[in-house]
Design a protein that fits this description.
There is one protein chain. By secondary structure, the protein is mainly beta. It has one domain. It contains one helix and four strands, in the order E-E-E-H-E. The strands form two sheets. It has a two-stranded antiparallel ribbon. It has a two-stranded antiparallel sheet with strand order 3-4. Strand 1 and strand 2 form a beta hairpin. 1% of the residues are buried.
């Protein structure tokens, strides 16, 4: 998957990352749109320290890609209800 990541203070980029598998009680969402949040801006500026390689843009929407075995009420290929 492509991910928008923090590289170092003042630098971001797009990189390839493996698609994670959801845990038993998790849903994996394929992001169709995402926004950078103010906290992401603070991370990039060094005000909130994070490790290099962290994926930014946690304000996201998308479709359910995979479900953990204990998840109920969602279906692969659908948005959340």
């Amino acid at each position: 998957m492509r991910a928008f990541v923090f590289k170092r203070v003042g630098e971001v980029g797009v990189t390839e990352k493996p698609v994670p598998a959801p845990g038993p009680d998790e849903a994996l969402v394929r992001t169709t749109a995402a926004m950078v949040c103010t906290s992401d801006v603070h991370n990039v500026n060094g005000a909130i320290p994070i490790a290099p390689g962290v994926t930014l843009g946690h304000e996201a929407v998308g479709l359910v890609h995979a479900l953990g075995v204990e998840v109920n009420g969602l279906q692969v290929g659908h948005g959340s209800r």
